[in-house]
Design a protein that fits this description.
Oligomer: heterodimer
Distance between the termini of chain B: 10 Å
Largest interface: A-B, 43 and 43 residues
Distance between the termini of chain A: 18 Å
Radius of gyration of chain B: 16 Å
Number of helices of chain A: 13
Structural class of chain A: alpha/beta
Order of helices and strands of chain A: EHEHEHEHHHHEEEHEEHEHHHHEE
Number of helices of chain B: 1
Radius of gyration of chain A: 19 Å
Largest sheet of chain A: 9 strands, mixed
Helix content of chain A: 25-40%
Strand content of chain B: 35-45%
Chain lengths: ~375, ~150
């Protein structure tokens, strides 16, 4: 497969803003173009990942950058929308149809619980089952039962991520909390607590990507980052219990979506999990990160709690995870979340992240997983 | 419970069209409906056109067991969003995956004392009645902790 490079990356901080989605999306896209040193009119195709925005949002955002007549499409794949959009752009470049593309992710979401009809059927809403954290909580509860994972271990993940967020100027919450603060925060859905979950919010992130040849023509410098893999897939039958599932099989034994997507990404990149210097993974709730350790292959099933106990995933550990503070601190503007991770990894690989820098990072992995079992894994290499 | 022979369709509806076997006029006799694949034997909730596991179209309707065991659960601590038809004054309630003998775990509210919830708890299926904003009776379902005598 031919190489595709990220030439520029831009982000609009995640948080809650008066600005419209068009404004924050255009700001992130403009920042990515500036970083790449590429003029908008040279872009040959653009993709917007989003879930909650109106029809044709991509064009409505990007026409602010100037008149253009290229194909601009919106892509939706739940929490993995950003991965699906980036993958489409990579495929378009690899096909030879275009050689310079812009991929943006943008969202503007109301405070509190997300609008349930975006995810659930009416009957599930009527029965009171349209509560996203409930699905995370049931997986956590069963994991605790099967492997002895503790509430303290789940709290430690939140503690780590909140601590990391202090150094991230793009995060919504930048407060360190004590383990006591976390374990005493109110229960949302047992055993998951308020300081262990992410909040829906506003944000945008974007990258400019190009074929190797085009990148060279544009005077590719050491700041270009290779997309070693960008994969998206959905959970096989009953491989993952997540909203909006109404039941699961007690007999099927399919591999989970993170295991499947990560295996595909490692194969494409020709490397293994041990080669990754820094990770950004889905932590919509703190337990979800423990599960991701296991499914990405950082440890065996049931050992995710041990990993956090041993400090392996904290700053300075062997496999640092969510140096950005994760979604728990940044918030989850769904369409922007994976591209936000990608921008973070690009900054890490360029050595641009200051106090949260993983020294000498050469390879990074971004992972998202959500509604409907949509999963994306992107591996970037300096 | 009241029933009307003239216009039952407007006075009472099932929470989901394909989820029960039996008549809405006799809610106590309703059972959960499932679908079993003749090829891979997977059982799914409600009616199916084909098997979501192996894709076979050799699927048949079955009636699911009424007795189950809690496989995992949580407690919903805040009023669910949207058109939730639960009690006007919100009470925290159990929500769990209940494993049935057919090899399926069904997501359902679990009535009874939330402090007694645990994995492995034995529970019993029962239909429940909710009221829609339009004044319709809505037949839903839950699993009751065994020994919990309260009934709709």
């Amino acid at each position: 497969m031919s190489d595709v490079f990220i030439l520029g990356a831009g982000i609009h901080p995640f948080g809650r803003f008066d600005a419209s989605y068009e404004e924050i999306g255009a700001q992130a896209a403009a920042a990515a173009l500036r970083d790449a040193g590429v003029d908008w009119t040279k872009i040959q195709g653009a993709y917007l990942s989003r879930m909650y925005l109106p029809a044709g949002s991509g064009a409505r955002i990007l026409r602010r950058l100037g008149s253009h007549d290229i194909s601009i499409v919106d892509i939706e794949a739940g929490c993995a929308s950003g991965g699906a959009a980036l993958r489409q752009a990579v495929l378009a470049i690899r096909s030879g149809a275009i050689d310079l593309a812009l991929v943006a992710g943008c969202e503007k979401m109301p405070r509190g619980f997300m609008s349930p009809s975006m995810i659930y059927s009416e009957w599930q809403i009527e029965m009171g089952m349209a509560v996203n954290p409930a699905y995370w909580a049931m997986r956590a509860k069963r994991h605790m039962h099967d492997y002895g994972t503790t509430e303290m271990q789940i709290a430690k993940v939140a503690f780590k991520n909140h601590n990391n967020s202090v150094h991230n100027e793009n995060a919504m919450y930048r407060n360190a909390f004590s383990l006591d603060d976390i374990l005493n925060s109110r229960l949302v859905c047992d055993p998951i607590r308020l300081l262990e979950i992410c909040a829906p919010n506003d944000g945008a992130a974007a990258v400019v990507i190009a074929s190797k040849e085009r990148a060279r023509q544009l005077g590719m410098t050491g700041r270009a980052i290779r997309i070693a893999a960008c994969c998206h897939s959905i959970a096989r039958y009953s491989a993952d219990f997540r909203s909006p599932a109404d039941s699961m099989s007690a007999t099927a034994n399919n591999r989970g979506p993170t295991e499947v997507t990560a295996a595909l990404a490692f194969e494409q990149a020709g490397i293994g999990v041990e080669d990754i210097d820094c990770f950004e993974v889905q932590d919509t709730d703190a337990f979800c990160e423990i599960e991701a350790y296991e499914h990405l292959g950082l440890c065996a099933p049931g050992e995710g709690g041990r990993l956090i106990d041993e400090g392996i995933t904290e700053m300075g550990g062997k496999s640092p995870v969510n140096m950005s503070g994760g979604l728990i601190s940044k918030g989850e503007p769904i369409g922007a979340s994976h591209l936000g991770q990608v921008v973070e990894i690009v900054s890490q690989l360029r050595g641009d992240t200051g106090m949260r820098q993983v020294h000498g990072a050469k390879v990074g992995l971004a992972h998202v997983l959500g509604t409907g079992g949509h999963c994306a894994v992107t591996i970037l290499q300096r | 419970m009241t029933s009307s022979n003239t216009c039952p369709a407007t006075s009472r509806r099932a929470i989901r069209r394909d989820i029960f076997s039996g008549s809405l006029e006799s809610p106590d006799k309703l059972r959960l409906r499932g679908s079993r694949c003749a090829k891979c034997a997977e059982v799914t909730l409600g009616q199916a056109l084909s098997c979501p596991n192996c894709g076979s179209t050799e699927v048949s309707d079955i009636t699911l067991s009424t007795h189950g065991e809690v496989w995992s659960y949580t407690i919903i601590r805040h009023r669910p969003p949207g058109d939730y038809l639960g009690p006007g004054v919100f009470e925290p309630f159990g929500l769990g995956l209940v494993e049935l003998a057919e090899g399926i775990r069904v997501l359902a509210p679990i009535s009874g004392d939330v402090s007694k919830l645990r994995i492995g708890l034995q529970v019993q299926f029962r239909p429940s009645l909710l009221n829609s904003a339009q004044g319709q009776e809505v037949v839903a379902f839950e699993f009751a902790q065994e020994g919990d005598a309260s009934h709709v």
